[in-house]
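Pipeline run #58 for the internal structure catalog. This entry was flagged by the ingest filter as a single-chain record with no existing model, so it goes straight to prediction. Upstream metadata was stripped on purpose; only the residue string is passed forward. Reviewer on rotation: M.T. Logging verbosity set to normal.
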Amino acid sequence: MPYEVIVELDEALSDAEAAAVDVAAVETLVARVLTDEAIADETVVTVLFADDAFLQALNREHRDLDEPTDVLSYAADAEADDAEAFPGMPDDEPPYLGDIAVSIPTALRQAAAASLEPAEEIAHLVVHGLLHILGYDHEEPEEDAAMRAREEGYLGPRIHAAGPDAHVLHR
């Protein structure tokens, strides 16, 4: 693979939550998105799967929101779109794109609410976070439509079949 996709499972996850993550599938999906988005070879991205408490702590620290969320992303280039680099990342390595943090408990709840398989929702959150790092957003209706179209291009239309309220945390 021309990319380095670092996948980490937080030790706070239960065995069942950790088992919901197919590391190889995540690595393949991230590499496919990076390839399709014409990102330079050897680019590095980290995906951390954690619990609600960890995502809540990140959300509180970086967004002043004291609540759990489903996915957060941090672009390594702090100057791009006022993004904040994830703390402690090396700056003398191959091109570092950024970090994605996904709450597995929230992903599992959202999967059930949207009638999706856990793997589908986990993939959705990974793609959503990665697209944010790549500069996509959903603040305006046109941006939202473009981001949803990219997500559906990678994951199929089923990912949004339950409607916009199924993924209210990352709206």
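catalog note: The first strand starts at residue 4 and ends at 9.
catalog note: The chain has a mean pLDDT of 89.
status: ready for reviewer M.T.
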